[in-house]
Amino acid sequence: MAYTIDVNGKTHSVDVDGDTPLLWVLRDVLGMTGTKFGCGMALCGACTVHINGAAARSCITPVSNVGKSRITTIEAIGATAAGARIQKAWLDREVVQCGYCQSGQIMSASALLAANAHPTDSDIDAAMSGNICRCGTYSRIREAIKQAAQSST
Length: 153
Ligand code: FES
Ligand code: FES
Description:
Helices cover 36% and strands 15% of the residues. The chain has 153 residues and is α+β, with helices and mostly antiparallel strands. Strands 2-1-5-3-4 form a 5-stranded mixed beta sheet, with helices on both faces. The mean pLDDT is 97. Residues 96-102, 133-135, 137 line the site of one FE2/S2 (inorganic) cluster (FES).
């Protein structure tokens, strides 16, 4: 069946089964491979995208549930004010190690900062607790979010 979805401000028509996870539509149909597959069960956060600005796990989001929602992926997060600040802080703090989890981390951090310009430590912990990093970059992630928040108006 054909579904029309809005990804990064562009409309795409995709012909897939309705229960196809958004993750695979992004990666396999639209060729946007920045969003990663980790667990497929909403346990790791690697597949995080924004749906109407909120962090969401694309691995458990059937494309039939997307409707007219606005989807933002790592490919376009730098065009948002919060995303640009987060990406700069990530580079400044040299957060990334292997990189596999990092698109999801950046998407969760950007959603946090867009909703809460000056998050507390517990706000950061709550927003980021579902994003697993097997390289253990957690302390740099926290510092980068704090740096990005300091540059918020
Ligand atoms: S792949 Fe979606 S949460 Fe792990
Ligand atoms: S940077 Fe390697 S899993 Fe997070």
